[in-house]
Amino acid sequence: MSTGTNLKHARLERGWTLEDLSERSGVEVGTISALENRDSRRSQFFGALAEALGCSFEDLVAGRTSPHRVAESNTEIYRNPSRERGIISMPVMYQSASAGPGSFADEYVPVRGHIDVVESWALQQFGTHFDRVKVLPVRGDSMHPTIDDGDLLFVDTAVEHFTGDGIYILAFNETVLVKRLVADPVRRHLEIRSDNPAIPTQTAREEEIQINGIVRLWWKIKRA
What we know:
Elements: H1 3-13, H2 18-25, H3 29-36, H4 46-53, H5 57-62, H6 67-76, E1 87-93, E2 97-98, E3 103-104, E4 111-118, H7 119-126, E5 133-139, E6 152-156, E7 166-172, E8 175-184, E9 189-193, E10 202-204, E11 210-219
Parallel strand pairs: 2-5
Antiparallel strand pairs: 1-4, 3-8, 5-6, 6-11, 7-8, 7-11, 8-9, 9-10
Helix pairs in contact: 2-4
């Protein structure tokens, strides 16, 4: 089924009207209705709708939206059964976030492995929705000295639109980048900044950028 069909099924499964979901998510009724009737997963609103439904964006796309399943999924799908209780496995994605020229924007990014972390740490850092956080390695030095080549980013993939100044994973001109986005309210566009002063700042309208997540934190990787 399409993501729109899954969205409608999840809403009806909870006995909600369009107005109910709109009130819980902050998304307009007309927008929800349009999303339910088209085959697309790129809308900036799916993250807010999935959160209102109590599931991740990935579960919404896959149709794993049963209220009973959702109640268990936030922790159980991340627990590593081979580890002791209190340890969870966070997925590391194959695609790198480029802090340089960029890599081609691929809609489907497979998992390459997992990082085991203490569950209490994940809850403290990301809240109960740590299941929507993915780990991406960095390539390039355009975000130096803040983020360096090889560092690991913890990305909240439910954020699909600009929510304020910060470091985002974004697709721009068919490349996937890690950049700092800063709003310019006067000229009504976003500045795409690199922390490396040698890299020039770009500008774009928000609708020209596809946001794939916001960087919540990163691990510095030290080499001997």
